[in-house]
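Service request form, structural biology core

Requester: graduate student, group of Dr. S.
Request type: structure prediction, single chain
Budget code: on file
Notes: please return the result as structure tokens.

Sequence provided:
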Amino acid sequence: MDGPQHRAAAPARTARRRAVAAWVILGVVVTTVTASLAAAAAFGEMSLATFGLGMLPFPLVGAVVAARRPANPVGWIMLTIGVLTALDGALGVYGVAGLRGTVSLPAPAAVLTVRVSLWVPIFGLMGTFLLLLFPDGHLPSPRWRGLAWLSAATMVACWTMIVFTPGTFADMGFPSVDNPFALSALGDVTPVVLPWLLALLPVCIVGSALSLALRYRGAHGVQRLQLKWLAAAACAAAALYFVTMLPGTPFVFPTTEPAWADVLDIWGPLGFLLIPLAIGIAMLRHRLYDIDVIINRALVYGVLTSALTLAYAALVTVLQQLLRPLSGGSDLAVAASTLLVAAAFQPARRRIQALIDRVFYRRRFDAARTLETFGQRLRHDHDLPSLHDEITSSVRLVMQPSHVSLWVPGGRAGER
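Core staff response, request fulfilled:
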């Protein structure tokens, strides 16, 4: 029979094995991404392998979290996302190179069929189970099991229909290549069922995000800060994605998109990489308590940047019309607008900071205003004993202690 020491050491050995497995998986992912990039560069297909490179923060953070907390499935989900994104690049390069005849490879169409369906588990896991199980690895309550099963069933059904539906690879430049896994029975079913399944997946993602919001309402202490990190990263990623997509709408640029819009199209989606970074900070509790400062600064400078950009555009337009008779089409309006916006930066920042503190950080705003009022009172009234009640009430409001004592040399002392 095993002794007590052996039974006590078993969980430690299991944790070490899982940690080693996490680092091995990360090594496989990095090796696969590197090999895919090298092959893509050699074959002139770099666009097929860059997705895995951009998604590397998911397996990197996932390996650290899985090694530190091997019993928590969040790290393993992030590692799985990394494995799937690495496969996406490798299978893409393999399939396209094989179909174009760059090199002789077996079954390139079959490989490419699997590759075009990988987006379902990648974004499905990212939008459902990663949110449902964050941060402790458990569902918020047993009532959420139905959503978990629905999410899993939806992903499996979408993947199955994509893989086995008849069709060609025309969107990838191979209109004459048929899906080798096609089942003729799905030819009439897929156009009816697949759109509903693809619409159900975002519903599952919204439901998972709702579970995160409800968990936040009932959370306290460290867990509340962990959820705040993920919520802040998700909101920032969504905002960046919205800004990225905005130039592509016809009512913004009816004719041709400017060059900076093309840059946004490339780099804007990288905002989603804030999500694994936030998860890593929250799970490993590194600088966990800085979240309120980060949110405050993001709100201040986000609103400030938007306001100054709109003001700059309006000033340039107005001043160009007003100064056109004098400037003769020179850049005088642009220079004047730049100077005015630069001069308004600090005053606008102070006003926006005060507005955000008043709306989102009311307690700190009230405390700062109380201290400012009390400081002005002290500058005009030096009779400390007469200010006893006001001092104790101000300290209680600002610091909220359980006990306040005040000792005044030569005066009266009191406790509140």
